[in-house]
Amino acid sequence: MRQWWNYRDDVTLITRPRRFGKTLNMSMLNCFFSNKYADRGDLFEGIDIWKDSGYRQIQGTYPVLYLSFASVKADNVSDAKKQVKSRIVSLYQDFEYLLENEKLMESEKMAYRHILTEMAEMADVTACDSLNYLCRYLEHAYGKKVIILLDEYDTPMQEANVYGYWEEMTSFLRNLFNATFKTNKYCIDGLPNRHLTKECDCMKKKLSVMAVIILVLAICVSAWFYGYYNHKSNDNLPTLTAIAEMSEADVNSLLPGYHIDQLREVWGKPDTSENSTACWKLGNDTTLVVSYKNNGIVAICGLKDDSGASIGE
């Protein structure tokens, strides 16, 4: 927390996997800086940051906007926008006491009431500017710029990508985030978005490229493992003399899975070969007939006598 505060970046983006404590850290920042917790220094007593008198002086002294888009999940863009707007209205309701503050102009109070009245039905343009306006009202009331903490900002974009309204939703969020973070002069710092206006355009392409790379790697690894575990060694291939002593059932349990080139390598050129079938004479009036697939893998074998009858019959 000390490191983040000292850097004083305009906007900070936190990117970590699930369960890495992003929400917990943002909740901690809210409790430390928000003037709603002005009398809760006891939460930080005994930890390292509380030993610094400078941080003890600023604990609980800033207006903080803390909201989460974790539950913004809809299968259509209209409902998704309404859910975002509902989160914004909830923030306005949390600070409704500002309407009694004498530092706000009457026109500002009218705009504030308008958002409370419109609720989730407010126009997109109004919603996109609403957090910027709320920061202005808070800055006027408290004389300090606002800290904005936004959790799960990417959840609406994930849902938009899944349900096919990516372009409409990212256009809406781009305008919202631009007004809230990029052009907001009443905001002292923002989490977790950094240059999201550019990231929105690139994110879908990056996800697609990553998906293709992962798919190709998965196919290559699977193919390698398949070839490794399904490859039969020439060392285990019996001689034709040994084949002559086997039953047809034993031959069929042994040879399928070998490649026809392996048989040629060990046994030599077949006596006859045509139409995906190769025959080797075994020297006891018996012929081994091997049928193989188009890819050369042995499929089925048979033992026939000189008359062409199967010895297995």
Mean pLDDT comes to 83
Number of helices: 12
Rg (CA only): 36 Å
Strand content: 5-15%
Summing up helix and strand content along with how strands pair, one would put the structural category as alpha/beta
Number-wise, the strands total: 7
- Strands of the biggest beta sheet: in what spatial order? 4-5-6-7
Instruction: Write down the overall geometry.
Output: elongated
Fraction of helical residues:
40-55%
User: Main beta sheet, described?
Assistant: 4 strands, antiparallel
- For the record, give the distance between the C-alpha atoms at the N and C termini, rounded to a whole number: 83 Å
Order of helices and strands: HHHEHHHEHHEHHHHEEEE
Please indicate the count of domains: 2
Contiguous low-pLDDT stretches (5 residues minimum) are 192-202
Q: How would you concisely characterize the structure shown here?
A:
This protein is of the alpha/beta class. Helices cover 50% and strands 12% of the residues.
Explain the overall architecture.
- With 313 residues, the chain is an alpha/beta fold.
- The chain folds into two domains: 2-202, no CATH class; 234-305, Beta-lactamase Inhibitory Protein, Chain:B, domain 1.
- It has helices at 2-7, 22-33, 53-58, 77-94, 106-118, 124-142, 155-163, 166-182, 196-230, 240-244, 248-254, 260-267, and strands at residues 64-68, 146-151, 187-191, 272-274, 277-281, 286-292, 298-305.
- Helix 6 (124-142) packs parallel to helix 8 (166-182) and helix 8 (166-182) packs across helix 9 (196-230).
- The radius of gyration is 36 Å and the shape is elongated.
- Residues 192-202 have low confidence and may be disordered.
